[in-house]
Amino acid sequence: MIYGNVSLHNVAELLTDDGNGVLLSRVPNALRLLLNEKAQKRALNGAGVELRFLLHGEEAVIEWMLEPGEGISPKGIAEVFQGSFQSDYETTPQIVRPGVTCLKVKRNQKHHKFLQEQYQAGQFPFDPSVVRVLLPQDSTIRLLRIDGETSPPRPDQVPEERYLAYGSSITFGGDAAVPSGGYAARTAGRLGVDLINLGFSGSCYLEEAMADYIAERNDWAFASVELGINVIGLMPVDQFGQKTEYFLRRVSDSHPDKWLFCIDIFTCHRDLFEEAIVRQYREVLQQKVRELNRPRLVYLSGRELLPDWRGLSVDLLHPSTEGMFDISLRLARRIQGYRND
To answer: Looking at the chain, which runs of residues are DSSP E strands?
Structure first.
């Protein structure tokens, strides 16, 4: 989406209300209002959202207002990248506190010629001329103003292929130290593709409307769906199976030529305490993938992607920064293996 002279990546619609500025929704508002109440709020969080632009003047000034989410730190972290590279020490990361934040962005030109040559040689996916501001993943952001001589990047300056990731707070990037640290973001980076992050913290309920939306999108090359953890105790296993079948059938049948990777519940406290229910949900997911028998629908074990429970945060549910790294390493290898086969 183009807003003024910048590109808003992973934003489907701009919303206005009685507050200041514009809200950034990761899905169309008509769809957002069909989702569960939690997901309606999470759709306005900044997971995977980036402000992208070419900076023609000395600096750009971005002003926004952060509204913290429920049950998380009242502060957020924003990052600035130049192409595929983290910006300099003085610029990133930025702590974002509740209220109005004014971020001044300048480009570091010291090695630009060398980086541009390496980009042209295919060494990394983003043109180093593209400034990328990664918003805090856990909070709602009201964009107030963007000043400076900027223009949106050209399509050839960003990755051509896109990876769509739907799932829970783990896909969302919860407990990752920085926005670029979630497993989905890291996986996209390892594969040299762009990311469409449709993670919904605590609210990945497999709505039919969400399945229809993903199925009707044509801007992704491959996708992953991480299912189960948000509905344990919320819906019976049989109902989970029914929702899973619709979701996977709808998306895979709409894109028979695209790989769809179905990830079950990652290693968590339920495994450590040997709760039978987590095994039941995993078995149902695996069974549905097997029964659908679509050539490019692939089941991936969350326990195999995160085999060591020491990669969890202290809640023994969300992967830590190290755990996110480990998941992305294994997931990228699996995806690349199938796509190269």
So the answer is: 2-3, 6-9, 13-15, 22-25, 50-55, 60-67, 76-82, 85-86, 94-96, 99-105, 130-134, 140-147, 150-151, 162-167, 194-199, 222-226, 259-263, 297-300
Measure the CA–CA gap between 335 and 188, rounded to whole angstroms: 10
The domain 2-157 is placed in CATH, from the list 2.60.120.280, 1.10.3330.10, 2.60.120.260, 2.40.50.140, at: 2.60.120.260
Domain ranges of the chain: 2-157, 162-340
Of 31, 34, 332, which Cα lies nearest the Cα of 183?
Answer: 332
Written as one letter, the residue type at 233 is G
The 10s digit of each residue's pLDDT in 182-197 is 999 999 999 999 999 9
Please state which architecture CATH assigns to domain 162-340: 3-Layer(aba) Sandwich (3.40)
Radius of gyration of the chain (CA): 20
Query: Hey, what's the torsion of the CAs at 54, 116, 332, 266, to 10 degrees?
Result: -40
Give tens-digit pLDDT for 48-61. Answer: 999 999 999 989 99
Considering only CA atoms, which of 194, 187, 197 is closest in space to residue 221? 194
Do residues 285 and 226 lie in contact, with contact meaning Cβ atoms separated by under 8 Å?
no
Report yes or no: 78 and 134 within 8 Å, Cβ to Cβ: yes
Distance CA 298, CA 20 (A): 44
CA distances from 174 to 43, 95, 167, 201, 205 (A): 14, 16, 11, 7, 17
pLDDT at site 69: 61
Check pLDDT > 90 for residue 89. no
Sheet of 194-199, strand order: 194-199, 162-167, 222-226, 259-263, 297-300
Contact indicator for 264, 302 with CB cutoff of 8 Å: yes
pTM over 0.85: yes
> Residue 46: its pLDDT value, please?
92
pLDDT attached to residue 148: 93
Residue type at 58? E
Question: What's the rounded mean pLDDT across residues 162-178?
Answer: 93
Nearest residue to 128 (alpha-carbon basis) of 148, 152, 112, 106: 112
